[in-house]
Amino acid sequence: MYLRPPKPAVLLPLLAILLGCSVQEPYFFHQTGDLSRYIGLSTAIEYPDVSGEMLSEVAGDQRPFSVGQNEPKEHWDLRLEDAVRYALQNSKVIRTLGGAVQGPGPPDTLLTQNLELLGTGGPGFPATIYDPALTETDPRTGVQAALSAFDAQWTTDIFWERNHQPQDALNLSGSALPQDLFPDVLLQDTAQFQTQITKTTADGAQLTVQHNIIYDLENTQRILSGDWMPNFQVEVRQPLLQGRGVEFNRIAGPNAIPGVNQGVVLARLKTDIALADFERGVRNLVHDLEVAYWELYFAYRNLEAAKTGRDAALATWQKTYAQFVSGTKEGGKAIEAQAREQYFLFRATVEQALNGVYTAESKLRLAMGLAATDGRLIRPADEPITAKVAFDWTQVHGEALSRSVEIRAAKWRVKHREMELIAAKNWLLPRLDLVGRYEWLGMGQKLIQEGGGGNFGGAYENLFGNDFQNWHIELQLRVPIGFRKEMSGVRNAQLALARERAVMQEIELEVSHQLAYEIRELDMNLALIETDYNRRVAAERNVEAVGEAYRLGQVQIDVLLQAQRILAQAESDFYRAVATYNESVMNVHYRKGSLLEYNGVYLAEGPWPGKAYFDARRRARARGAAKSLDYGYTMPRVISRGPYRQISGPPAEPSAVPAAPAAVPEQPATPEEVPAPGPEARPPHNEALSNLPPAEVDRAVADRPGL
Question: How many structural domains is the chain composed of?
Fold first, then answer.
């Protein structure tokens, strides 16, 4: 009887009825019901188990200074030189304040960055003091990683095995040959030991020294039932076309492929670029620090100007109030109200200026790497220069094009692309290798036979008898028909080089324009210092004249109040011009690449461990005693023009004090005995111009060039 199997359409509903439509959980024996290990989610916001030492500036921070809440009990008179020193000592991460120096609040340089990309050298990411060392020690692309490709490699392999297997033996019954020549079952013990050292030379040749020991014991009919077969082998593989030469191997590295260059020359160029990026970060830190310093100076001066206006307004209000109370002047109530409004206007200005001092001081502290508040209020101890600083355009322009760190980094990138192009052209050659091998062989029943034993008694004795040698010479040629990938690599390298050269030229153009802008700003701010000072002198005389006229009843109170406001604004504008002028002098050095020298900063490599100096000296002695190999035309080309001189003038040792900058003030200003900013400081000005009547002043100014 034949039974037809049920159709799938009938089985599926039946299985659904038996098993149910819901998800079925497996059944476990000895189930306790404890599900404490079960967590009903896969991701949660957690806190990392990281313990690190907190900076004392963060742990011991105090409440910030603010208007009417927390006022400083002590002032810290700080020189600009000391501020730079503090900033460099406390800057493991190079801070970049940027436009936030003159902005409303502190910068969020790190808070808005992708911290995984920190230190990559990309635009907008702060540098750290570890970046050059990280680039140098990168195990993939660092200098030591590239040099390791030329290190000797020692490999060793040893194994032992037994074979016991049946085999289709030849039937030799009735023959004169022994029956165990081809046994039915193969019994074999075999072992092999192999050790070799491989070394790649700077010219691309591969040297191999190999030693093998083979042991074989079989149940077949042989002269020696078990024998040892040692051998020594020396092999040289020398590329004749593609891959040959010191220059190519130092650029691309051994065993390279088209488009992937990991040679020691390129690794060193990456370190040079990292050093340039680090120098740029330090330069920007010093720039932002000096701007913050002079902005704090202006904040103090602006506060003093506001206080002077407030005190004058208070005195005027007191006089008008006394007149209003005594009724000695008509309109005393309106006059008193105007004077009162003027006083509170200046009072609000003082409060805003005081908050500006606290804000500017906090930004300077951030640039210096100090706590936001430690109970002391920083006060600039250096007075700004007001004398004329003259720069020769031809000199500073040439200096900018040769010392700018951006141009230097761009030139390193151009050199990097030039090296890649040289390596890419090498791939257009056919691969032709010359292989030479020489081998010494031995065999014996024992590996080491003491006291002789015949020709095959001891394997090593037979090997060292130098009776058996093999040699092999081979030429290997490999030619890709068309060189399509190789030609594409050359074209890509040419385009990359053209792009880097275009970028370098664009950077040179931008540096030239930036320097021209700063020179123009320098001249303008110098003119503003003199103009604003004479404006302030005129405003002082106007207040005196209007005050006398008001006492005589010749003018109204609003004229006097307006004159006082103009004087306060002229005072603030004058010190604004002084601070901006000093920033302009600094900006010229910033654009022409001498800012670090201008602030007495010298970059040098830190000390190494004593063992590193010992090893370096030992290797230098070994190289001095060794015989030099002449690689002929494969000698690598010049990559670097030598160390970059960070200071102008004659070269100096790293520990020496840098030379003075090329451009210095013609009449350097002498700092006051009391470093606290106050309204007493007066810059050099044209007294004759200040004493002229208005018409003569206009005529004298019109006769000056550029006005």
Answer: 1
